[in-house]
Amino acid sequence: MEPVTRVAGRAVPLDRSDVDTDQIIPARWMKRVERTGYAGGLFEKWRRDPAFVLNDPAYAGASILVSGPNFGCGSSREHAPWALRDFGFRAIIAPSFADIFRGNLPNSGLVPVRAAPDVVSALLAAVTADPATEIVVDVAARTVHCAGVCDAPFELDESAHHRLVHGLDEIDLTLARDAAIAAHERTRPPWMPTGRPGH
Amino acid sequence: MTTLAGKVWDRHVIERGDADLLYIDMHLLHELTSPQAFEGLRLAGRPVRRPDLAVATADHNVPTGPDPLSLLDGLAARQLRVQQENCARHGIELHPLGSPGQGVVHVIGPELGLTQPGMTIVCGDSHTATLGAFGAVAFGIGTSQVEHVLATQTLWMPRPRTMAVTVRGTPRPGTSAKDLALAIIARIGTAGGTGTLIEYRGDAIAALPMEGRMTVCNMAIESGARSGMIAPDDTTFAYLEGRERSPRGRLWERALDDWRTLRTDDGAAFDREAVIDASAIGPQASWGTNPAQTTGIDGTVPDPASFGDAAERAAAERALAYMDLAPGTALRDIAVSTVFIGSCTNGRLADLRAAADVMRGRRVAPSVRALAVPGSTRVKRQAEDEGLDEVFRAAGFEWRSSGCSMCVGMNGDVVEPGAHSASTSNRNFESRQGPGARTHLVSPASAAASAVLGHLASAADLGEVR
Q1: Predicted ipTM of the assembly
Q2: What's the domain range around A27?
Q3: Does A57 touch chain B (CB under 8 A)?
Q4: Which GO CC terms are listed, alphabetically (chain A) (predicted)?
Q5: What percent of chain B has pLDDT over 70?
Q6: Contact (CB, 8 A) for A141 and A68
Q7: Does any domain span residue B279?
Q8: Please, which pLDDT band fits residue A158 given cuts at 50, 70 and 90?
Q9: What is the mean pLDDT of chain A?
Q10: What CATH number should be reported for the domain holding residue B413?
Q11: Any CB–CB contact under 8 A between B158 and chain A?
Q12: Residue B432 to residues A75, B422, B426: CA-CA distances in angstroms?
């Protein structure tokens, strides 16, 4: 994976709480077996409304999405980060995220930016007032900057930070622990069930 | 002093850190969230570390009408074919469409005895929380994590905080586990459990059969929690004894000795706590577009202005606009034209029995289309052995084969645009049950009563009608 140390660009304001994964990408898109090609499904239902913010040409080309609390609630579908990425987003700023979604974002190279509610409110107001507003997410330093609006820290857990900044493949990191995994594996209780291939 | 969640978690930690490296005892797979994971393994030339600790089935995409195999659309057929190839290549047990073991992944795991106390269980599906009802740490993961588990049988996971939701007292008559689950979410909110594993405790939880416990844990995710858990007890052991993959003989005795230690120590501290009085809870129905937007069936659609929190107020305004509901409308005055009984929340045999008990000798209202969709092929067969299919058919229900069906609306089973449904599923998100669908989450008994009356109702409402 490519390292992600900084995301800079314009931002789309999506001032709603509890934006769920069924809105981010409807289930019908999950019949596909590919990992890319989901841009058309992003907020598919809401985009049918010409007044929806993503249809506003002033926000075309934005790389950051700013939204309300509990962003990404609902399903575990990684198709949601894939759709956001394929559409062109690289960072999502919100006061809080749903757990599974927040964990999924870095695996697609996207940055979950959990900032204080007043910071998010100020950013929402700024990018709503002026779509040309530039935001800089410094992933390495875990800060979000917007001239005249904020210069604030955000939360990003250590392991996600480490992998994003260094572009590490998590499976490689884990496979290096093979001996420890095998040692633990030998302690798995004998009564625990197994699958039966060819069942 | 340790919580149940802490005990099970600690047993599986291989390496401690900001995120712990956790060993995974069982990996369940369905057709939607795994193809890209297998493709990733193929591209990297990596094998599946423990194909014997994975079990797969097809549920989201599968048609539920007569002869489902003939009804598959092209994309769904391709996805099922890819799943069969992946499982065959890596030697993974698969219960495909058309086989006797097929069903909703969270329903077949317990049926087979694959979900036991003290295990770590994952699946690329948020409703894996269901399986915490057995005293397991069970949670949903993304596709990159599915790939990680296939390659390593482990996951890096930050140690979750713990939350105790204690439900005390005796619920009012006619109140089901689904009503408890909805009332809990309405109380703690869609993000009330964020960052935690919830342990549901108290006499009202202990009194639930396993099916009801699974319903409660299933919806832990709708309150933002990673998962729900319930301490294993004699109810759990009785459910597991004799299942196909449950231990037998001396191993069963050893397992029992271990499982009996899996409970929160007296005095162990939780990071968060909520105490709920079950005696105040009756049948529930959701009115909005997230599961916390729920109230008692005797209630009315709230006025958004009554919410003190600005975000909640805005969410309620948007929800009422989407649902086309006015503040103050009695829930019983909301007409429904679709009724869905099924899903990983309420598609088990006990759920079908509860709905059939209401339907026996009654008819679905002429204005209503009603579907009964068993959670698994095994549940379907058991229900048919008891004659439940006849009860549903005689009442005017469509009796289907098993799958996720109208809970997720991927297989052609959808609510018409703009129509209101009474559904035993778990999410009332906009367009979840089909574009423009307006979903009301209810229990199986309430769904059946709503089918009879053509509006949101509880089974008690049928008293005067009969």
Answers
A1: 0.96
A2: 6-168
A3: no
A4: 3-isopropylmalate dehydratase complex
A5: 99
A6: no
A7: no
A8: very high
A9: 97
A10: 3.30.499.10
A11: yes
A12: 11, 13, 10
